[in-house]
Amino acid sequence: MKIFVLNSGGSSVKFKILEMPAEEEIASGKVEKLGSSDAIFHLNYNNNKLKEIQEIKNHGEAINLILETLIKPEIEILNDYEEIDVVGHRVVHAGENFTGSVMIDQEVIDTIRDSFDLAPLHNPPNLKGIEIFKEILPGTPMVAVFDNAFHAEIPDYVRTYAIPYKYYEKHAVRRYGFHGITFNYMTDRAAEILERDKNELKLFSLMLGSGCTANAFKNGKSFEVSTGFTPLEGLVQSTRSGDIDPAAVLYLMRKENISIDEMDRILNSESGWKGISGISNDFRKIVEAYQQGNEMAELAINTAVHRAQKYLGAYTAVMGGLDAVVFAGGVGENSVLLREKICSDLEHLNIKLDKKLNQNLEGEGIISAADSRVKIVVVNTDEEVVIARESYNKVV
Ligand code: ADP
């Protein structure tokens, strides 16, 4: 069964075609820097790599470009679109409406549209992808895999904000948590690497990419998650502030006469390690500047490390213990420095990094010292595989 996985969101469109249930990749690719004249289209198939730079205005254009390329005779990934048996879509947010993956019908489409407010950057491109496929392949089953479904069962005292309860009842304002598809993969893969039953593990997972989320996992499910009503809460992220006293935000808005929309943009797009350092949202550039002695880069890194350690301690306490710390994401999988700093001076929690294993790691594996009771694991996350698995399980 050929499953086309579409991850259309933020400033990129990623896709993968997988033969299921074997999980064999037929082709994959992505369009980056959407909305610019130098957008990049990457395509991998049959040991071939294609890279094209061209103007791609929006998600619709990117998806159409991907689809047109797949059936080009010289590329021959697909003879025609009918070869696609199922389409799996990543959808970021549907409020409290779905607790698991669902077959897409008109009601699901309407619910995703009704949730635009909850994820303004992600839900519209998610829906665009669904609409394009519905037009091209009207009879093909499509599955929506929700990014926050993984956190659907967090307890009421974890999801509740201490504001008048009527705002939850009226507007569903609560903690939802994000990066669920990645945590689904991370927790399964970490258990495999540790050769343990995941239902018996207490895991502290750090998804560190452009967006960052910490997760506490116990009894085989998500128990706590640092991103909240939106992805803004929690860890220091590339351009998002993470935790901040809401009163500080109100104070700044009054003092500097900042509008609601502008403050929204500052907190989501101008903050995080980019905002502190003034250098870049690209973590590699922050590390380079730090290594050259830049003090603001050092402050940005120290702030991010401190926040991650604070969550580690808090989540260890509320889980009643810890078996492993799990890293994934562009930063989590690649930054030796950040992993070393986050795992430093934690011997009192029985967490001890093996610095050599950390430095020499290729791909994924265990990087804790042999005598560390809590293991440290790096996982190469693969959201598309999770979406393909969920889609497959929905239709068979
Ligand atoms: P997203 O999918 O959320 O856009 P990724 O998980 O791809 O993000 O992570 C992107 C981040 O990973 C960027 O900030 C990038 O700088 C960082 N990154 C990638 N490689 C490295 C590396 N070798 N060292 C440090 N950071 C890295």
TrEMBL record:
It comes from the Bacteria. This is Acetate kinase. Mg(2+). Can also accept Mn(2+). Homodimer. Belongs to the acetokinase family. The keyword Cell cycle does not apply. Substrate binds at R90. Catalyzes the formation of acetyl phosphate from acetate and ATP. Can also catalyze the reverse reaction. Its main location: cytoplasm. The keyword Metal-binding applies. One of its GO terms (cellular component) is cytoplasm.
